[in-house]
Amino acid sequence: MPPVTTDATRERIIDAAEECFGRFGVAKTTVEDIAAAARLSRATVYRSITGGRDELILAVVVRDLHRFLDRLADRLRRERSVPEAIVEGAMDAIAYVRSEPTIAHFLVPEAAGHMQAAVAGGAERVLALCADYVRPYFEQAQRQRTLRPDIEVEGTVEFLFRIITSLIVMDRDRDADELRRFLRTYVVPVIAAP
Question: What is the pTM (predicted TM-score) of this model?
């Protein structure tokens, strides 16, 4: 059997962390749990993941975020209008995060302190990843003059990221139609050309 590569070992550890977070919750998962699930020694886990639990939490989130952003990019390619791309892209993001078991585990109150530390440390990385995926669509919309001319693409991406994050965290029990109406009324006018 060939030796396990560093990338393969890291993926194995991230898989194990995702499994343990799902089984035990973020707050109760230990590095020992992750090492056992990965069938590796604690020392190997610590060597492969130098940032400890925070790095593991962020790695699980970023991997799931890649999955979602692949789907979002496909949707943005198909959308014909900027307002609908904003509304439906936001709806997809909110639904995905709320329903994705891996990410949902990070939203429970007991995970708050652990998640906050990990994501705060990696917030720029998460935002940059989101921006990389959606930037081409907003740049194209700006060239087509369907975005307000006085806004910057980077600021637009950050604004949407912040809005979507707050809608996920502060669920006000709106149904899908109410949430779409909220997005069309308050978010679309900030971004789309009149």
Answer: 0.71
